[in-house]
Amino acid sequence: MTVQNNEIDSFLGRHIEDIPYEVNLLDSIGFGNEKIYSILNINGEKFYSKPLKNVIIYVDETNIIKKVYTDFKGSFDSKFYNSIVDKYGLPTSISRRVNEKQLESEEIEGTILTETTGTLVECELKDNPDLIIWDSLNIKLTFIIIDELDKIELVMEINK
Amino acid sequence: MDGDGDGSSGTSSGSGGGGSGGGPGSSSGTGGTSYTGGTGPIGVSSGGSTGGGATPDVEVGEGCFCDSFEPSGGDAEKLGGLLTGKDDDCPEGEILLPVNEEEEEDVLLIPSCQSFEYANGLLVKAAGVSNIQNIFVAAGFYSDGSPYYHRFDLNITEAYFSMPKTWTNGNAANYTANALHLANLKTKAWFQENPKVSVYSLGLEWDKNIRDAMRAIGGDHSKTAPFPIKNLAPYAEDWVWAKTDCTK
């Protein structure tokens, strides 16, 4: 097996056995057509400047990787932004949340649950966006930014 | 595949360690969860480790209940290189501060192993944690182009994690912290896939995922203590990359 690089965005579209990591089956979805794996031994690798801890991948019935999920600590700083732009061009959408409505919290079996809903409006990078999307011909990257946790979540998927 | 984490690719097939020698290589038997086989000396009882009739009284954080198990190098690598193979030190409870000694570098937010102050009971070792704060966000655009932003805050007021007694407290804490991060990530992925679910459904999904993640390493999660635990450790998240090894 020859692996050109370990960047997790290169995993999309590849067979699960063609990535340079062991994987661990977490779950099957539906009738087993889709499976979820975690990638082992990826702790310490990076997605551009962001260290990785855990990465989850979704594969289809032919074991082709269709989606990759991970998260990072930190803000969506210019260094990280520019590294994504260098590879994927300018983002398709930058937006922030508005019209938030927080419902009354409820406690169920020792867990306090609070729901907040809202919508999104387009904004610029300087406006502290909550969502940035790169939607290219082949690949879609969705970054969800959670300022309260100083955290970024990433969904990468093959465009249908 | 030998499961030693030598960098070769391969998928696990649910081959757990079974009764003797599974280490982290145990299968939970729930939801198809499995783990690559390991060679560590840990015996894992599938289906969880909590329960039992005896209720020894242990106060968390007092004393040191170290045991002799250290996973082999391959096993250590399987959970992302958390383990260093250092011997059976106990977590000492000190606060680890982020120290970037050389240059500023991005670090990762993960549940801190310092949250899990394991102590031995009669059958298992367990840690009680209070106020696990999770934020789950699903955001994007529906197929008709309309935007959505859904956020669920979950505050788990108390949670209990158990591991086999043969594990050191430090390793049990390390693996539990990683299991919690993995369960959170899997729940986030599920929420992003299902943005219209109720907050109650998301809570159930998180319960399932943390239980699966703990059972996959031979432990368990519950909302009741497997034995009386007087003090719950407050939940903490680390901003410290590679400085959360509780075996040190």
Determine the structural class of chain B based on helices, strands and strand pairing: alpha+beta
Number of strands of chain B: 8
Report low-confidence residues of chain B grouped into runs of 5 or more.
1-105, 239-243
What is the molecular shape of chain B? Answer: elongated
Structure annotation, total helices of chain A:
1
Mean pLDDT of chain B: 66
List the secondary-structure elements of chain B in sequence, H or E: EHEEEEHHEEE
Distance between the termini of chain B: 31 Å
Poorly predicted tracts of residues of chain A: none
In percent terms, what proportion of residues of chain B is strand? Answer: 15-25%
Determine Rg of chain A (CA atoms, Å): 17 Å
SS summary, helix count of chain B: 3
Terminal CA distance of chain A reads 27 Å
DSSP strand content of chain A: over 45%
Classification by helices and strands of chain A: mainly beta
Oligomer: heterodimer
Spatial strand arrangement across the major sheet of chain A:
1-2-5-6-12-11-10-7-9-8
Number of strands of chain A: 12
Average pLDDT score of chain A: 90
